[in-house]
Design brief:
Elements: H1 9-16, H2 22-28, H3 40-49, H4 53-63, H5 71-74, H6 76-83, H7 88-95, H8 99-110, H9 113-126, H10 131-145, H11 150-160, H12 178-183
Helix pairs in contact: 1-6, 1-9, 3-4, 7-8, 9-10
Length: 202
């Protein structure tokens, strides 16, 4: 999904671990309506009484509100300018041109360099793949992440010892080897994820 979001939004989310609020989700096109939590019981009651698809749509539209402006609306042009690029060198150069961009680059540099490069490559590859192929790609990547160092180091630094000082391997973005990143997406010796849609199982 992230690879198909417009104007660099998906890349911004993937590389910085930012989250979409209600208004952001609407603007990014991943949501159609915003119904606040306190209205959900009434919405569910209306849907339960609905007899047609049009009645369901009407119920949602009746209960929907306009959410407060989010991060995407506030920085839409900057997100596109910085994260509209497909490589880290261009993202870094664009980020240097604004205070917001520099803040995003600083955030990105705190992440696992391997994870940042993996996310960028996954977005590139996933852009043209269907759901099944994306899941196979994800499975390969996660399988190898769990066999590596940085996932467990992140858990240690944030959840176990809580020193907030992860020691990534490699430590910086410029130390990440492109061939090593590509290897995460190669077929697994133990076998890839297989979907049997006809049987309704994965």
């Amino acid at each position: 999904m992230l690879s198909r979001l417009p104007n660099g939004i998906g890349r911004w989310l993937a590389l910085t671990s930012e989250r979409l609020g209600a208004a952001d989700a609407l603007q990014a096109g991943v949501a159609s309506h915003y119904v606040p939590r306190h209205r959900l019981p009434e919405l569910l009651a209306l849907i339960a009484r609905a007899q047609t698809g049009d009645a369901v749509v009407e119920a949602v539209e009746t209960m929907a509100l306009t959410p407060p402006a989010g991060e995407v609306a506030a920085h839409h042009a900057e997100i596109a300018a910085v994260f509209g690029h497909d490589d880290l060198a261009s993202i870094e150069a664009a980020a240097a041109r604004s205070e917001w961009g520099r803040q995003q680059w600083a955030t990105l540099q705190k992440r696992s360099p391997t994870a940042v490069c993996l996310a960028l490559e996954q977005l590139r590859r996933g852009r043209t793949l269907d759901f099944t192929a994306c899941m196979v790609l994800e499975y390969r990547m996660v399988h190898r992440i769990l066999a590596g160092h940085d996932f467990y180091e992140g858990v240690r630094a944030v959840l176990v010892e809580k020193d907030q000082a992860p020691r990534w391997q490699p430590a910086t973005l410029d130390q990440v080897d492109a061939a090593a990143i590509a290897a995460y997406f190669e077929p697994l010796e133990a076998g890839d994820l297989v979907f049997d849609w006809a049987a309704g199982t994965g």
